[in-house]
What we know:
Blueprint: H1 2-11, H2 13-26, H3 29-45, H4 49-73, H5 95-113, H6 118-141, H7 147-171, H8 173-180, H9 186-192
Helix pairs in contact: 2-6, 3-4, 3-5, 4-5, 4-7, 5-6, 5-7, 6-7
Amino acid sequence: MAVRLHAAALQHPGLTHASRIVTDWVVDPWTMRLLLAAAVAWLWHRRQRLLAWWVACTSAVEWALRTVLRWTIGRDRPEWERPVDSAEFAAMPSGHAMTTAATCVLLLWLARITHLPAGLVRLGAVTAAVAVAAACFTRVFLGVHWLTDTLAGTLLGAALATGSAATWHAARPHEDAARTGAAPAPDDLGQGLRQPRPSRYRESTSETDI
Length: 210
């Protein structure tokens, strides 16, 4: 796959130039971090500051995990006689793919829990899929990653963001239930109702007792 895509990149310089624009500006890890920073600022403005910190820390963990994995695996990048692009450091996992996948999953999760319009969420899901596919394709097409680098990055980024969202909901179940309007459990209903105290006086049974 890498050999065929590199040959196509040499034959189609226009597509190669467009791929470089996409990979350097649209799906670049710093572009993804700027999107998350905007989301964090929006949450902070809505006074959801704990959630803002959670998203920011998830992004930091993604960056740290990617760096550690690259140092540990140490996979070499493809080498070509006529390269069309260049990149440094180890290849596995792809930083573009991992950061894009993690960012897209986090943004879609935030769109759901903040109750954005359903149409906007669906549009975001389509955009996210296109962005992740573009990150994977351009990195292999430009000859700076193997296909498995991008697949591993996508799976790791999506898994990390999904795990972060699941941990958030597991740690705050009562607030989630209140936000969605879920009914309390029967035991909670029983505890919330006060039982009437027994009266010390006999209830009247006839008019003669009055």
